[in-house]
Amino acid sequence: MIYLDYQATTPVAPEVAAAMRPWIEEKFANPHSPSTWGREAAAAIEVARGRVEQSLGLSGGRFAFTSGATEALNWAIKGTFEDSLRRKLVTISTEHAAVLDTAEWLEKQDIEVVRLQVGKDGLVDLDMAMSQIDDKTALVAAMLVNNEIGVIQPIAQLARAAREAGALMLCDAVQGFGRMAIPDGPDLVAVSAHKIHGPKGVGGLWIRSGTEPAALIHGGGQELGMRSGTLSPALCVGLGEAARLAAERRDADAVHVEKLSQLAVATLGPGWVINGSFDHRYRGNLNVRRENLDAARLISDMRNIAFSLGSACASGSGRPSHVLRAIGLSDRAARSSIRLGFGRYTGEDELVSACRRINEAAHEQAQLPA
Q1: pLDDT tens sequence across 274-322
Q2: pLDDT for res 370
Q3: Which domain holds residue 232?
Q4: Which terminus, N or C, of the chain has the lesser number of Cβ atoms within 10 Å?
Q5: Whole-prediction pTM
Q6: How many separate domains does the chain show?
Q7: Do 360 and 232 share a structural domain?
Protein backbone atom coordinates (compact mmCIF):
# COMPACT_ATOMS: atom_id res chain seq x y z
CA MET A 1 0.00 0.00 0.00
CA ILE A 2 1.26 3.47 -0.91
CA TYR A 3 -0.30 6.00 1.43
CA LEU A 4 -1.09 9.41 -0.11
CA ASP A 5 -3.87 10.65 2.15
CA TYR A 6 -1.96 12.79 4.66
CA GLN A 7 -4.75 15.38 4.94
CA ALA A 8 -7.12 12.70 6.23
CA THR A 9 -4.62 11.42 8.78
CA THR A 10 -0.90 10.78 9.14
CA PRO A 11 1.09 7.71 10.22
CA VAL A 12 1.88 7.75 13.93
CA ALA A 13 5.55 8.57 14.47
CA PRO A 14 7.51 5.74 16.15
CA GLU A 15 8.72 8.20 18.79
CA VAL A 16 5.10 9.11 19.58
CA ALA A 17 4.05 5.48 19.96
CA ALA A 18 7.00 4.84 22.27
CA ALA A 19 6.22 7.90 24.40
CA MET A 20 2.57 6.86 24.78
CA ARG A 21 3.15 3.20 25.61
CA PRO A 22 3.96 3.53 29.36
CA TRP A 23 0.82 5.63 29.90
CA ILE A 24 -1.31 2.96 28.22
CA GLU A 25 0.23 0.05 30.10
CA GLU A 26 1.63 0.47 33.62
CA LYS A 27 1.04 4.23 34.22
CA PHE A 28 -2.73 4.15 33.95
CA ALA A 29 -3.68 6.43 36.86
CA ASN A 30 -6.31 9.16 36.63
CA PRO A 31 -4.39 12.46 36.24
CA HIS A 32 -7.00 14.24 38.34
CA SER A 33 -6.44 11.94 41.33
CA PRO A 34 -4.36 13.25 44.30
CA SER A 35 -2.46 9.97 44.52
CA THR A 36 1.25 9.79 43.70
CA TRP A 37 0.48 8.03 40.43
CA GLY A 38 -2.21 10.59 39.62
CA ARG A 39 0.18 13.48 40.26
CA GLU A 40 2.78 11.79 38.03
CA ALA A 41 0.22 11.53 35.22
CA ALA A 42 -0.79 15.16 35.73
CA ALA A 43 2.85 16.23 35.52
CA ALA A 44 3.26 14.36 32.23
CA ILE A 45 0.25 16.20 30.83
CA GLU A 46 1.76 19.55 31.83
CA VAL A 47 5.01 18.66 30.06
CA ALA A 48 2.96 17.78 26.97
CA ARG A 49 1.03 21.04 27.23
CA GLY A 50 4.29 22.97 27.32
CA ARG A 51 5.54 21.18 24.22
CA VAL A 52 2.39 22.03 22.28
CA GLU A 53 2.56 25.66 23.37
CA GLN A 54 6.22 25.86 22.39
CA SER A 55 5.49 24.33 18.98
CA LEU A 56 2.64 26.78 18.41
CA GLY A 57 5.04 29.64 19.07
CA LEU A 58 2.32 31.98 20.33
CA SER A 59 2.54 34.09 23.48
CA GLY A 60 0.01 35.38 25.98
CA GLY A 61 -2.23 32.34 26.25
CA ARG A 62 -2.71 28.74 27.33
CA PHE A 63 -3.40 25.50 25.50
CA ALA A 64 -6.36 23.36 26.55
CA PHE A 65 -6.60 19.69 25.54
CA THR A 66 -9.80 18.48 23.87
CA SER A 67 -10.97 15.30 22.12
CA GLY A 68 -9.89 16.78 18.79
CA ALA A 69 -10.19 19.83 16.57
CA THR A 70 -13.92 19.40 15.96
CA GLU A 71 -14.59 19.84 19.67
CA ALA A 72 -12.10 22.69 19.86
CA LEU A 73 -13.77 24.56 16.99
CA ASN A 74 -17.26 24.02 18.40
CA TRP A 75 -16.07 25.22 21.79
CA ALA A 76 -14.41 28.32 20.37
CA ILE A 77 -17.41 29.34 18.27
CA LYS A 78 -20.33 28.47 20.54
CA GLY A 79 -18.50 29.56 23.68
CA THR A 80 -17.59 32.94 22.20
CA PHE A 81 -21.18 33.74 21.24
CA GLU A 82 -22.55 32.57 24.57
CA ASP A 83 -20.58 35.33 26.30
CA SER A 84 -20.81 38.06 23.62
CA LEU A 85 -23.38 40.78 23.09
CA ARG A 86 -22.37 40.89 19.42
CA ARG A 87 -24.38 38.66 17.09
CA LYS A 88 -22.36 38.19 13.91
CA LEU A 89 -19.91 35.53 12.70
CA VAL A 90 -17.71 36.12 9.66
CA THR A 91 -16.18 33.01 8.12
CA ILE A 92 -15.18 31.64 4.70
CA SER A 93 -17.27 29.46 2.40
CA THR A 94 -14.46 26.88 2.09
CA GLU A 95 -14.07 26.17 5.80
CA HIS A 96 -14.19 22.68 7.31
CA ALA A 97 -17.59 21.24 8.16
CA ALA A 98 -16.80 21.65 11.86
CA VAL A 99 -17.01 25.42 11.31
CA LEU A 100 -19.69 25.57 8.62
CA ASP A 101 -22.08 23.20 10.39
CA THR A 102 -21.60 25.09 13.64
CA ALA A 103 -22.33 28.30 11.74
CA GLU A 104 -25.63 26.79 10.57
CA TRP A 105 -26.44 25.95 14.18
CA LEU A 106 -25.71 29.57 15.16
CA GLU A 107 -28.15 30.85 12.56
CA LYS A 108 -30.90 28.92 14.34
CA GLN A 109 -29.97 30.91 17.44
CA ASP A 110 -30.53 34.17 15.49
CA ILE A 111 -26.83 34.80 14.92
CA GLU A 112 -25.96 36.50 11.63
CA VAL A 113 -23.45 34.46 9.61
CA VAL A 114 -21.45 35.89 6.71
CA ARG A 115 -19.70 33.31 4.54
CA LEU A 116 -17.06 35.07 2.49
CA GLN A 117 -16.61 33.77 -1.05
CA VAL A 118 -13.22 32.90 -2.53
CA GLY A 119 -11.69 33.38 -5.95
CA LYS A 120 -10.63 30.70 -8.41
CA ASP A 121 -7.38 30.45 -6.47
CA GLY A 122 -9.29 29.55 -3.31
CA LEU A 123 -8.21 32.70 -1.49
CA VAL A 124 -10.51 35.14 0.24
CA ASP A 125 -10.67 38.73 -0.99
CA LEU A 126 -9.33 40.87 1.86
CA ASP A 127 -11.25 43.98 0.79
CA MET A 128 -14.48 41.99 0.87
CA ALA A 129 -13.56 40.54 4.25
CA MET A 130 -12.80 43.93 5.75
CA SER A 131 -16.09 45.32 4.50
CA GLN A 132 -17.92 42.60 6.45
CA ILE A 133 -15.90 42.63 9.68
CA ASP A 134 -17.58 45.42 11.63
CA ASP A 135 -18.71 46.46 15.09
CA LYS A 136 -21.46 43.80 15.03
CA THR A 137 -18.92 41.02 14.57
CA ALA A 138 -18.07 38.86 17.57
CA LEU A 139 -15.84 36.35 15.81
CA VAL A 140 -13.94 35.85 12.57
CA ALA A 141 -13.19 32.17 11.82
CA ALA A 142 -10.73 31.16 9.11
CA MET A 143 -8.63 28.12 8.23
CA LEU A 144 -4.87 28.55 7.89
CA VAL A 145 -4.42 25.76 5.31
CA ASN A 146 -7.45 24.44 3.48
CA ASN A 147 -7.85 20.72 4.07
CA GLU A 148 -9.06 19.98 0.54
CA ILE A 149 -6.97 22.16 -1.77
CA GLY A 150 -4.11 23.24 0.50
CA VAL A 151 -4.30 27.00 -0.07
CA ILE A 152 -3.03 29.27 2.71
CA GLN A 153 -5.40 32.05 3.78
CA PRO A 154 -4.14 35.50 4.94
CA ILE A 155 -4.67 34.81 8.63
CA ALA A 156 -2.54 37.68 9.96
CA GLN A 157 -4.49 40.25 7.95
CA LEU A 158 -7.84 38.78 8.94
CA ALA A 159 -6.77 38.76 12.59
CA ARG A 160 -5.72 42.42 12.32
CA ALA A 161 -9.09 43.36 10.81
CA ALA A 162 -10.89 41.49 13.59
CA ARG A 163 -8.88 43.24 16.28
CA GLU A 164 -9.52 46.66 14.77
CA ALA A 165 -13.25 45.93 14.81
CA GLY A 166 -13.13 44.72 18.41
CA ALA A 167 -13.86 41.11 17.38
CA LEU A 168 -12.02 37.88 18.18
CA MET A 169 -10.23 35.73 15.62
CA LEU A 170 -10.38 31.92 15.48
CA CYS A 171 -7.83 30.09 13.34
CA ASP A 172 -8.38 26.47 12.35
CA ALA A 173 -4.70 25.54 12.16
CA VAL A 174 -5.22 21.78 11.86
CA GLN A 175 -3.52 21.41 8.47
CA GLY A 176 -0.81 23.99 9.16
CA PHE A 177 0.25 23.26 12.74
CA GLY A 178 3.68 21.65 12.85
CA ARG A 179 4.27 22.37 9.16
CA MET A 180 4.62 26.16 9.18
CA ALA A 181 4.66 29.07 11.59
CA ILE A 182 1.28 30.02 13.02
CA PRO A 183 0.77 33.72 12.23
CA ASP A 184 0.61 35.96 15.27
CA GLY A 185 -2.77 37.58 15.80
CA PRO A 186 -5.46 34.91 16.35
CA ASP A 187 -7.08 34.76 19.78
CA LEU A 188 -8.13 31.12 19.45
CA VAL A 189 -6.25 28.39 17.56
CA ALA A 190 -7.54 24.83 17.03
CA VAL A 191 -5.18 21.91 16.37
CA SER A 192 -5.32 18.12 16.06
CA ALA A 193 -2.75 15.45 16.92
CA HIS A 194 -3.42 12.94 14.16
CA LYS A 195 -2.53 15.42 11.40
CA ILE A 196 1.05 15.71 12.75
CA HIS A 197 1.89 12.01 13.28
CA GLY A 198 0.16 11.83 16.64
CA PRO A 199 -2.77 9.74 17.90
CA LYS A 200 -6.42 10.19 16.99
CA GLY A 201 -8.83 11.36 19.66
CA VAL A 202 -6.89 14.35 20.98
CA GLY A 203 -6.37 17.94 19.93
CA GLY A 204 -6.92 21.24 21.57
CA LEU A 205 -7.58 24.94 21.63
CA TRP A 206 -4.98 27.62 22.28
CA ILE A 207 -6.70 30.51 24.06
CA ARG A 208 -5.32 34.02 24.38
CA SER A 209 -5.71 35.33 27.92
CA GLY A 210 -8.90 37.33 28.26
CA THR A 211 -10.67 35.65 25.34
CA GLU A 212 -11.75 32.44 27.09
CA PRO A 213 -14.93 30.99 25.55
CA ALA A 214 -17.72 29.75 27.81
CA ALA A 215 -17.55 26.06 28.64
CA LEU A 216 -19.03 23.67 26.09
CA ILE A 217 -18.78 20.53 28.25
CA HIS A 218 -19.75 20.65 31.91
CA GLY A 219 -19.04 18.26 34.74
CA GLY A 220 -15.92 19.05 36.75
CA GLY A 221 -13.84 21.54 34.80
CA GLN A 222 -10.79 19.29 34.90
CA GLU A 223 -9.01 21.02 32.03
CA LEU A 224 -7.97 24.52 33.13
CA GLY A 225 -11.37 24.93 34.79
CA MET A 226 -12.96 25.32 31.35
CA ARG A 227 -13.36 21.86 29.86
CA SER A 228 -14.76 18.90 31.79
CA GLY A 229 -13.82 15.26 31.47
CA THR A 230 -10.95 12.99 32.49
CA LEU A 231 -7.92 13.59 30.32
CA SER A 232 -6.02 10.66 28.82
CA PRO A 233 -2.34 10.98 29.77
CA ALA A 234 -1.41 8.69 26.87
CA LEU A 235 -3.18 10.85 24.28
CA CYS A 236 -1.91 14.12 25.73
CA VAL A 237 1.65 12.79 25.87
CA GLY A 238 1.25 11.61 22.27
CA LEU A 239 0.21 15.08 21.10
CA GLY A 240 3.03 16.65 23.08
CA GLU A 241 5.65 14.37 21.54
CA ALA A 242 4.20 14.82 18.05
CA ALA A 243 4.36 18.60 18.52
CA ARG A 244 7.95 18.42 19.75
CA LEU A 245 8.98 16.32 16.75
CA ALA A 246 7.13 18.61 14.35
CA ALA A 247 8.96 21.65 15.67
CA GLU A 248 12.31 19.84 15.57
CA ARG A 249 11.81 18.53 12.03
CA ARG A 250 9.80 21.34 10.49
CA ASP A 251 12.53 22.65 8.19
CA ALA A 252 13.63 19.16 7.09
CA ASP A 253 10.01 18.10 6.55
CA ALA A 254 9.37 21.22 4.45
CA VAL A 255 12.35 20.51 2.19
CA HIS A 256 11.24 16.89 1.77
CA VAL A 257 7.65 17.86 0.98
CA GLU A 258 8.74 20.50 -1.54
CA LYS A 259 10.76 17.88 -3.42
CA LEU A 260 7.88 15.41 -3.31
CA SER A 261 5.52 18.04 -4.72
CA GLN A 262 7.85 18.74 -7.63
CA LEU A 263 8.19 15.01 -8.34
CA ALA A 264 4.42 14.48 -8.23
CA VAL A 265 3.68 17.34 -10.63
CA ALA A 266 6.43 16.24 -13.03
CA THR A 267 5.34 12.58 -12.97
CA LEU A 268 1.66 13.31 -13.53
CA GLY A 269 2.66 15.45 -16.46
CA PRO A 270 0.40 17.43 -18.81
CA GLY A 271 -3.35 16.96 -18.75
CA TRP A 272 -3.67 17.58 -15.02
CA VAL A 273 -4.74 20.95 -13.60
CA ILE A 274 -3.99 22.03 -10.03
CA ASN A 275 -7.03 23.21 -8.09
CA GLY A 276 -6.40 26.42 -6.16
CA SER A 277 -3.38 28.67 -5.94
CA PHE A 278 -0.06 27.00 -6.63
CA ASP A 279 1.99 29.79 -5.04
CA HIS A 280 0.01 30.21 -1.81
CA ARG A 281 -0.36 26.63 -0.69
CA TYR A 282 1.07 23.91 1.53
CA ARG A 283 3.07 21.70 -0.85
CA GLY A 284 2.06 18.43 0.78
CA ASN A 285 -1.49 18.86 -0.51
CA LEU A 286 -1.86 18.40 -4.26
CA ASN A 287 -5.46 18.63 -5.44
CA VAL A 288 -5.62 18.05 -9.19
CA ARG A 289 -8.20 17.36 -11.86
CA ARG A 290 -8.21 15.85 -15.34
CA GLU A 291 -10.91 16.48 -17.91
CA ASN A 292 -13.66 13.82 -17.97
CA LEU A 293 -11.96 11.74 -15.28
CA ASP A 294 -14.22 9.63 -13.08
CA ALA A 295 -12.28 10.17 -9.85
CA ALA A 296 -14.39 7.78 -7.78
CA ARG A 297 -13.75 5.00 -10.30
CA LEU A 298 -10.05 5.85 -10.33
CA ILE A 299 -9.86 5.41 -6.55
CA SER A 300 -11.67 2.07 -6.86
CA ASP A 301 -9.22 0.91 -9.52
CA MET A 302 -6.16 1.97 -7.50
CA ARG A 303 -6.76 -0.37 -4.56
CA ASN A 304 -3.14 -0.37 -3.44
CA ILE A 305 -2.83 3.43 -3.39
CA ALA A 306 -4.59 5.43 -0.70
CA PHE A 307 -5.73 8.88 -1.84
CA SER A 308 -9.03 10.72 -1.77
CA LEU A 309 -11.59 12.91 -3.49
CA GLY A 310 -11.40 15.56 -0.80
CA SER A 311 -12.35 15.87 2.85
CA ALA A 312 -12.53 12.52 4.65
CA CYS A 313 -15.36 13.98 6.74
CA ALA A 314 -17.61 14.39 3.68
CA SER A 315 -16.32 11.66 1.37
CA GLY A 316 -19.40 9.46 1.82
CA SER A 317 -21.99 12.17 1.16
CA GLY A 318 -22.03 11.72 -2.62
CA ARG A 319 -22.11 15.49 -3.05
CA PRO A 320 -19.43 17.39 -4.99
CA SER A 321 -16.91 19.11 -2.75
CA HIS A 322 -18.18 22.46 -1.47
CA VAL A 323 -14.60 23.73 -1.68
CA LEU A 324 -14.22 22.86 -5.35
CA ARG A 325 -17.63 24.35 -6.10
CA ALA A 326 -16.59 27.51 -4.25
CA ILE A 327 -13.58 28.02 -6.56
CA GLY A 328 -15.89 27.85 -9.56
CA LEU A 329 -15.69 24.22 -10.66
CA SER A 330 -18.75 22.53 -12.12
CA ASP A 331 -20.06 19.34 -10.52
CA ARG A 332 -18.43 17.41 -13.37
CA ALA A 333 -15.03 19.07 -12.85
CA ALA A 334 -15.27 18.58 -9.09
CA ARG A 335 -15.93 14.87 -9.62
CA SER A 336 -12.88 14.75 -11.88
CA SER A 337 -10.59 15.90 -9.04
CA ILE A 338 -8.40 13.92 -6.66
CA ARG A 339 -6.36 14.90 -3.61
CA LEU A 340 -2.86 13.52 -3.10
CA GLY A 341 -1.38 14.10 0.35
CA PHE A 342 2.19 13.27 1.32
CA GLY A 343 4.73 14.12 3.99
CA ARG A 344 7.45 12.98 6.36
CA TYR A 345 7.27 9.24 5.75
CA THR A 346 6.48 9.30 2.02
CA GLY A 347 9.34 7.93 -0.09
CA GLU A 348 10.28 9.55 -3.38
CA ASP A 349 10.23 6.27 -5.29
CA GLU A 350 6.83 5.23 -3.99
CA LEU A 351 5.33 8.63 -4.79
CA VAL A 352 6.67 8.51 -8.36
CA SER A 353 5.38 4.96 -8.76
CA ALA A 354 1.93 5.93 -7.46
CA CYS A 355 1.65 9.02 -9.66
CA ARG A 356 2.76 7.06 -12.70
CA ARG A 357 0.11 4.39 -12.04
CA ILE A 358 -2.59 7.02 -11.41
CA ASN A 359 -1.71 8.76 -14.66
CA GLU A 360 -1.75 5.51 -16.61
CA ALA A 361 -5.11 4.50 -15.14
CA ALA A 362 -6.57 7.92 -15.96
CA HIS A 363 -5.29 7.62 -19.54
CA GLU A 364 -6.80 4.13 -19.88
CA GLN A 365 -10.09 5.42 -18.52
CA ALA A 366 -10.11 8.13 -21.19
CA GLN A 367 -9.82 5.46 -23.93
CA LEU A 368 -12.96 3.63 -22.81
CA PRO A 369 -16.13 4.16 -24.87
CA ALA A 370 -18.48 6.77 -23.47
Answers
A1: 999 999 999 999 999 999 999 999 999 999 999 998 654 444 556 789 9
A2: 53
A3: 15-245
A4: C
A5: 0.96
A6: 2
A7: no
